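Render this sequence as a predicted structure.
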Amino acid sequence: MTEVLRIDAKSCTGCRLCEIVCSVKKTGSVNSARSRIRVVRLGGSSGYLPVVHRRDLAVIMAGDIGPGRATMFEEYRRTGLAQCDFCGGDPACAKACQAHALRYERCAQEEVG
């Protein structure tokens, strides 16, 4: 089984609650700069994009986010984010997301591709 964080960028409101709860869980303090997830504001009125970094990236974008967002996601996740471990199988970011833009799942490897 593979751990997956499904990201529905179209549902993200940009509240950054995921960043706050991640930083508290991982560092014991409110410091979004030290969280393992970032919410990036996209240009124009195209919304927000939650980004996580995992060496064995198992993150699935829900729906058609468009090539620009997919490229931005790939570029941004490589820039200085600490390695995400999905909080040992109980990710604080997904539990805290009131917009349901983040969803943690375990699925078969063939479902990820």
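Summary. The longest strand covers residues 2-7. The chain has one domain: 2-112.
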